[in-house]
Amino acid sequence: MTGIAKPRHGIIPWPPVIYVVAIALSVVLGMLYPLPWIGDIFGDLLFGVGWVALFGVAMLWVTAIRVMMRAKTTLDPNAEPDHLVTSGPFGITRNPMYLANTLLLIGVAFITGIAWFLLLAFLAAFATQKLAIEKEEKILAAKFGKKYRDYAKRVRRWI
Hints:
Elements: H1 14-32, H2 39-70, H3 96-112, H4 115-144, H5 146-154
């Protein structure tokens, strides 16, 4: 035993919890304390961009899940991965599922005009990075070593 503690995942699967809370808060705050929106000026454009974002969300989710299943690695954010996945959307962003979750909130903000979705999208992304991504990166670096560090240098965390 070397005395170096191996990084571990937590018990709570933070990313889904964070984004569900952000969605719920956005809806409630949007009803109770609506914020001004630029929809009057750019309404149709933002509506269209929102649907394009949601299409991107679906594509990121589907392709990321397919690549992970093909690699026979876990989809559970609290489980230790069996393989380092670097292809498909993972060749563009190290966190395509978390990026998709953030884009979901942004797309819904543009479609509905509820500014809280936009604000909470960025807060959810920040919280996900602090509570999940940074821990996951330590686990990946400990398990895959140089292979992960080279990948992290080549591919950005978000976009």
